[in-house]
């Protein structure tokens, strides 16, 4: 699954996005009030949960599938109702064009129109980072690179933010990282993680599919 129009600083924005494949004529439309990078990592992480959904699995695993940003929205100025309104609007657009939409949309009319201060869930960020490092570090059981990956990332954080993470309180350095530092780490890991984890999922799904076919032989 490739990053489409969503590159660089755009990944740190919030708004409406699509996971789209022109070859399959399939599209998943979603919204995020957090940021695109967090949401897209979570989509990749949760792929195995949808192995029983053929269309969704094919969309995620097909080589021509792309993540694209449809509309940037600032949660400070757009309430939750606005997010779901634009998400539904995008769904209607693709439906009129004859696309197969595999996502469900919440009617905006059922949501309130108040704007609230968005407090980032940093534990959500840390969970994504742990998952990415786990996949990238455990290339094989004889070569555990997890500790080396963490060390290398912390050196990059020190250089980027002119800090010294080793001087912070607590034995778990990851727990001390601030929002900007966590986002920096996710942006660094995401390109490699996306390629590696999709390979893992494709292999797992192929093996599972072969086992199912063998039942009928």
- Relative strand content: 5-15%
What does the overall shape look like?
globular
Oligomer: single chain
> How are strands sequenced across the largest beta sheet?
1-4-2-3-5
List SSEs in N-to-C order: EEEHHEHEHEEHHH
* Tally of contiguous helical segments: 7
Count of individual beta strands: 7
Give the helix level as a range of percent: 40-55%
Flag low-confidence runs: 212-217
Q: Major beta sheet, specifics?
A: 5 strands, mixed
**Overall residue-averaged pLDDT value:** 85
Structural class: alpha/beta
Radius of gyration: 19 Å
Whole-Å distance between the termini? Answer: 32 Å
Q: Could you explain how this protein is built, in words?
A:
With 217 residues, this protein is α/β, with parallel strands linked by helices. Helix content is 49%, strand content 14%. Strand 6 (138-140) and strand 7 form a beta hairpin. Helix 1 (36-45) packs across helix 4 (122-137), helix 1 runs parallel beside helix 7 and helix 4 (122-137) crosses helix 7 (179-214).
Supply the key terms:
two-stranded antiparallel ribbon; single chain; 14% strand; alpha/beta
How would you concisely characterize the structure shown here?
This protein is of the alpha/beta class and 217 residues long.
How is the secondary structure organized here?
Elements: E1 2-3, E2 15-21, E3 26-32, H1 36-45, H2 54-61, E4 66-72, H3 80-96, E5 100-101, H4 122-137, E6 138-140, E7 143-144, H5 146-161, H6 173-176, H7 179-214
Parallel strand pairs: 1-4, 3-5
Antiparallel strand pairs: 2-3, 2-4, 6-7
């Amino acid at each position: 699954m490739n990053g489409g129009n969503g590159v660089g600083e755009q990944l740190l924005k919030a708004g409406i996005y699509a996971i789209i494949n022109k070859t399959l004529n399939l599209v998943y439309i979603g919204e995020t009030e957090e940021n695109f990078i967090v949401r897209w990592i979570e989509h990749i992480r949760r792929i195995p949960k949808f192995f029983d959904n053929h269309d969704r699995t094919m969309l995620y695993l097909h080589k021509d599938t792309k993540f694209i940003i449809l509309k940037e929205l600032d949660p400070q100025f757009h309430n939750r109702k606005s997010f779901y309104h634009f998400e539904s609007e995008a769904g209607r657009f693709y439906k009129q064009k004859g696309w197969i939409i595999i996502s469900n949309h919440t009617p905006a009319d059922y949501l309130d129109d108040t704007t609230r201060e968005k407090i980032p869930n940093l534990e959500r960020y840390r969970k994504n980072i742990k998952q990415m490092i786990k996949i990238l570090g455990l290339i094989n059981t004889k070569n555990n690179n997890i500790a080396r990956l963490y060390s290398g990332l912390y050196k990059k954080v020190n250089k980027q933010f002119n800090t010294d993470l080793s001087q912070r309180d607590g034995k778990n350095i990851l727990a001390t990282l601030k929002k900007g530092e966590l986002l920096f780490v996710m942006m660094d890991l995401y390109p490699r993680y996306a390629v590696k984890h999709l390979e893992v999922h494709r292999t797992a799904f192929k093996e599972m599919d072969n086992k199912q076919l063998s039942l009928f032989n």
